[in-house]
């Protein structure tokens, strides 16, 4: 497979909570490909996306969407029906990985450590806590820490949670309740079949929420993370194993919490992102750069993998 020149449709935007991030990712990808001499068609996804993709007749679609419906299998299924070649993971993988409970069901039986917890109806939170405090509430199928609340004994949500307190219970009818894991936020990117590095994320205040992820200066990235070798090795092994078990393609990113008072027993996988961000602040490009892979080369590698995979499927 030669490196082009290709005609790439960069699919971005959409209508999820992560639309602004997707637009930044997509524009970065488009400029990188153009800098390497490829032809790019930018598509800000709307309800006519199938017709627009068909008209484009691109060699490959770079899926730079984040959140629903670009990351949950919906768009993947549409592109499968259209016979399009696209980057990142396919339908089944996307359906499972976007759903934190399904991800647990897929990975925990294979020995991947993940926090316990269960689905709760948001209405039930106003009567009492589903778990001992502190605990975490999060939407089942949103990414980028959208709608995450940490409920502590001395927090300002009330006890029980007040109906008029601002939180994810106002936006989602059901939530995933998990025990809160104290400690440090770690993340590992996987590209193809290789785990890259481990980054520690140190928010300047609060926790690593949506604003901390995408506002310059709000989070310190320590890459490679200053952690024991056995924790680095474990993060990379768990990220790669999870990538493979879920059937991820292209790039993925696994997020961890590590209770550094518990050693290896304190390391837990939180989720696997099948379409990690490609913005200037994003973690996958940062880890790749530390290994000598510049941004444009990273983008080309992801596109090339998709084209190679499609060629194998057609001839296999």
Topology as a string of helices (H) and strands (E): EHEHEHHHEEEEEEHEHEEHH
Query: What is the CATH domain class of the largest domain?
Result: Alpha Beta
User: In the CATH classification, which architecture of the largest domain applies?
Assistant: 2-Layer Sandwich
CATH fold call of the largest domain: D-amino Acid Aminotransferase, Chain A, domain 1
Helix content: 25-40%
Strand order of the largest sheet: 10-9-8-11-12
CATH superfamily of the largest domain: ATP-grasp fold, B domain
Q: Low-confidence parts lasting 5 or more residues at pLDDT below 50?
A: 208-214
Strand content: 15-25%
Rg is 20 Å
Averaged pLDDT: 92
Counting DSSP H or I runs of 4 or more residues, the number of helices is 9
How would you classify the helix and strand content by structural class?
alpha+beta
How is the main sheet built? 5 strands, antiparallel
Taking the alpha carbons of the first and last residues, their distance comes to 16 Å
- What is the approximate shape? globular
The count of β-strands is 12
> How many discrete domains?
3
């Amino acid at each position: 497979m030669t490196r082009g020149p290709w005609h790439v449709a960069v699919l971005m935007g959409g209508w999820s909570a992560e639309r602004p991030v997707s637009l930044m990712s997509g524009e970065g990808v488009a400029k990188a490909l153009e800098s390497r001499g490829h032809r790019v068609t930018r598509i800000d996804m709307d309800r006519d996306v199938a017709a627009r993709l068909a008209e484009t007749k691109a060699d490959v679609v770079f899926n730079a969407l984040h959140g629903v419906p670009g990351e949950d299998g919906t768009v993947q299924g549409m592109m499968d029906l259209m016979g399009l070649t696209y980057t990142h993971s396919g339908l089944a993988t996307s359906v499972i990985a976007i759903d934190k409970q399904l991800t647990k069901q897929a990975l925990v039986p294979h020995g991947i450590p993940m926090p316990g917890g269960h689905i709760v109806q948001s209405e039930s939170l106003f009567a009492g806590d589903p778990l001992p405090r502190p605990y975490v509430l999060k939407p089942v199928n949103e990414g980028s820490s959208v709608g995450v609340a940490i409920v502590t004994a001395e927090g300002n949500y009330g006890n029980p949670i007040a109906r008029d307190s601002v939180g994810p219970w106002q936006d989602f009818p059901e939530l995933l309740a998990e025990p809160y894991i104290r400690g440090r936020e770690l993340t590992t990117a996987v590209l193809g079949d290789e785990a890259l590095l481990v980054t520690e994320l140190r928010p300047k205040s609060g926790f690593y929420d949506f604003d901390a992820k995408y506002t310059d200066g709000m989070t310190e990235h320590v890459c490679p993370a200053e952690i024991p070798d056995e924790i680095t090795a474990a993060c990379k092994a768990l990220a790669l194993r999870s990538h493979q078990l879920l059937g991820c393609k292209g790039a993925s990113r696994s997020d961890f919490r590590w209770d550094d008072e518990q050693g290896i027993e304190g390391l837990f996988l939180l989720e696997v992102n099948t379409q990690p961000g490609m913005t200037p602040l994003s973690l996958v490009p940062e880890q790749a750069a530390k290994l000598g892979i510049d941004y444009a080369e990273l983008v080309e590698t992801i596109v090339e993998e998709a084209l190679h995979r499609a060629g194998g499927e057609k001839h296999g």
